[in-house]
Amino acid sequence: MAFTHTYRVRIGPWGLVARVCLDVRQVEAPPPEARVIGGSPVWWVPPPGIVPADEEWMRFGLGLVAGRLDALRSGAGAVVVRVLAWEVPVLTDHQEEVAAAAVVECLRRHYGIDGVDIGVTFDREGNRYRFTWGTSSWSARLGSGPDAAGR
User: Fold this and answer.
1) What pTM was computed for the model?
2) What are the start-end ranges of the E strands in 10-77?
3) At what angle do helices 52-64 and 97-111 cross, to 10 degrees?
4) Which of 12, 72, 73, 127 could bridge 122 with an S-S bond, Cβ 3.0-4.6 Å?
5) Is the Cβ–Cβ distance between 104 and 110 less than 8 Å?
């Protein structure tokens, strides 16, 4: 069953909002368009039209909970997270990290996947939200983000 989740945070002078729709299923084999998350038997399908930076952060968020998603698997096969929709209603107030936070929060609330604690603060001097992912900290700046290993 698919669930749509709206991620919202506002602790500074402006807020962040995004909507994600996810469907999580166990399958015998992942579909050809699916991409593996790390070395796990968890795969994902990005939504059509997603920009590369949002896709990278979404993959990062799924990587944070891949082990917990794998626990949904019973026997052989794979778990596939299909991102059916991704919407950022106010592009001027968007930060790419929201893609990671939105998928982690959606999986927690609608699928019972406990993930990492996501900390959010607002850097008034930099006029940006700063995110922490459990023990990892990433603050996206132009041209930076999670590395290819998903850390």
Assistant:
1) 0.86
2) 16-27, 35-36, 42-45
3) 40
4) 12
5) no
